[in-house]
Amino acid sequence: MAIVDTAVPPGEDPAPFHEEVEDPRRRDFINIAAVAWIGVGGAVVVLPLLNQMNPSADVLAQSTTEIDLSKIQPGQAIKTSFRKQPLFVRNLTPKEIAEADAVPLSELRDPETLEQRTKAGHTNWLITLGVCTHLGCVPLGAGEGENRGPYGGYFCPCHGSAYDTAARIRKGPAPKNLAVPDYTFNSATTVTVG
Amino acid sequence: MVRNLAMLVGAAFVVVLGWALFWTVQGQITDPAAPSIETSEWHKHPKELELESNGVFGKFDNRQLQRGFQVFKEVCAACHSLHLVSFRDLQKIGYSEAQVKAIATQWVIEQPSINPDTGEAATRKNIPSDHFPSPFANEIAARAANNNANPPDLSLMTKARHDGPAYVYSLLTGYQPQSAEMLKEFPDVKTPEGLHANPYFATMNIAMPAPLTSEGQVTYLDGTKPTVDQMAKDVSAFLVWTAEPNLTARHSYGWPVIIFLLIFVFLAWGAYQNVWRNIKH
Amino acid sequence: MSFPWAKHYAPSNPLMKWVDERLPVPRLVYNAVGAGYPVPRNLNYFWNFGVLAGAALGIQIITGIVLAMHYGATADGAFNSIEHIMRDVNGGWLLRYAHANGAAMFFIVVYIHIFRGLYYGSYKAPREMVWLLGVVIFLLMMATAFMGYVLPWGQMSFWGAQVITGFFSAIPVVGESIRIWLLGGFAPDQAALNRFFSLHYLLPFVIAAVIILHIWALHIPGSNNPTGVEVKDEQDTVPFHPYYTAKDGVGLGVFLVLFAVLIFLAPNYLGHPDNYIPANSLSTPAHIVPEWYFWPFYAILRAFTSDFILPAKLWGVLAMFGSILLLFFLPWLDSSPIRSANYRPTYRTFFWILVADVLVLGWCGGSPATPLYVILSQICAAYYFAHFLIIVPIISRAERPTPLPNSITEAVLAKHGGTSPAQTALAAE
Fold first, then answer.
1. Is any Cβ of chain A less than 8 angstroms from the Cβ of C60?
2. Residue finishing a domain among A33, A54, A75
3. Which ranges constitute the DSSP H helices of B35-114?
4. In the annotation, is A18 catalytic?
5. pTM of the entire structure?
6. What confidence tens digit (pLDDT) does each residue in C357-368 have?
7. Contact: C264, B251; criterion CB under 8 Å
């Protein structure tokens, strides 16, 4: 294959084109500058194309939910929604609190005390996501008359994960306790989750 | 063959157009179209309105927007919805999170909801993530309450009219009695019962009575004198924001981008000259 | 490619060699837009517009795909979904304005590209196929743009859909059935909106495929040039890369500057305020107009105001479609052996009259149908059809062209007043 001399346009006498062979870099600098400049532009353009997939302002605005606790009796729980996912809000009875406190941490797959999973002064309020940490089913136990499982908390019918009165995993394939979202008490009867 | 057919088709179109032209011209001579009020001098073009948001360097003046919001809240919101705007958006014009929450909970019109015990239709207080609720349940209710007129939503009004901001301002300050001269030329334009004369409105008569009639209808929190002209300007400015909340961002991204690209053109031109330096073309 | 002096792909990079041996895409690119495609050296900036059209399509596809992640094709929700994009989606306003103004840029670029073809005879043998495919692309673009404009479901979206689909009812006997079939109903509504969204997403990829054919068809004979004289020799050409990649870079830069000015400083300038009013089937806007790039055709449609054997409405529809379809026949209507209008003074005069004519038609199409504009439309529409169907066939036979240069190189050197060393060397042989 013949050597292709790209410096010489076809049909032109080569002599004039090899005069500046000692200084080709200076000539090509402008080419590189132009390509680099628009390359930076191209990279910057990608940013809004990716960022548009992030949650939009209205989704972020609904990232907090206020819950009224006043109607939930001790021993009762409600199922509500937080960030479009199920949320369990449970009013623990003193017996349920004692049961939870009695469990030694060494027996727990995901060791946490009930105290760690509730707010000071409000240990009876157990607020967790209603999403099984195994593969994401909604466990039973929050609704009236639902099966609370062998540990009196929640029971996931999909693969048999059983949670105790502090919503901690005790039996079955789930690796972690039911997730506790960020929340704060606005008053004795209202919380803001998220 | 193609050429002959083409000439035939071409001739056909030219003949038909000639025929149509003849009749159009003839019609204009024998029965000229009556002049319409819309294109006449009586239908006024919007007055000039100077706003901070005007022009390619425009940006929002939050103080004016807040005054405008006050006018909207206290005068317009009784009849006009703003359903593309959320209460939380007000943080962008300088209100704090707490102020926005207060505005939402204190908003007179409540958000439609469902009674959690009975399931019946009910209302609840607004929260910041809500859109501004409509003053009327639906179009029928709106018309019933407004002499069969439907007060339009104002979210996009300044983009939905030619020369929008100036148009809104002119309309609000443009209510005036019809001149005898105009009525002589266009007797059909005489204001019917229930409508109000306004030369800035397309049909010269608008169903909305003048909403801003006297100074002091609103007491501005920043102490600005609330003349009719001022209130009209401020609410127009506010409606520019409701229609285009990202205007300031758009301009502030735009100029660096344009300058970046102009520099690129310059560099690309240099590269082009460099690549072609030895080629005659 | 049939130029014997075209450079051959000889990759030194081991990765490129590996890929090319297994799937010859690298050599395809090299031969299409790389150093392996010889191009006439005398192309002017009007030859940039094909690449710019391709860039515009790319921009529309990318912005369109991300917009489709947020758009909702329901009659109740479409308008609000667009406002959701404008207000709440991160950078949504930028994407929406880029897509809307990108369509305008696409048409500006394509119109200049078409008129370049008309002036320089790019539609003539052996490039008729390139031209035919181009007209197909143009029709697909118009269909895509029309359906895209319906999607926001504003007043103009709805009434534009009403008017355009109404054309079909002008067809005798079957027209109304076709119209209802197209809409999936009796008026534009959910069914129409949904199918327009589906097709609007699809057609740009069909356009991309036809563009590949368009470029392939071009690369068989190679590019035309301002003299219209075919390439004879190696010295008539330069390799596409780096010569025209560099020149296209400049063109792209100018394109992007104009694009940026539109998006960031005047995003609604080319649009119509009525499309910021939600669609209302019970209230017709005062003046229904399509987007500016359809205005010349709209003027032709509305120019036919009198019945003549056929109803006026049918004439208008036939003329409007005919005004585009006649472009398919142009290579056979214009029988001049001379390509470039640079050497066809008579044709050149009528070319510029045509340009003015189309601009006036455009202005009329965007104006209300008052008698003045109707009369202007009638005159200009008559000229438009006369130009392609009567004048061009006649003058292409009868005109006296000016002498052509013997070669591209001769024309270039004549411009610079001198001979190249190669020419001197040749003479010395």
1. no
2. A54
3. 62-71, 97-106
4. no
5. 0.91
6. 999 999 999 999
7. yes
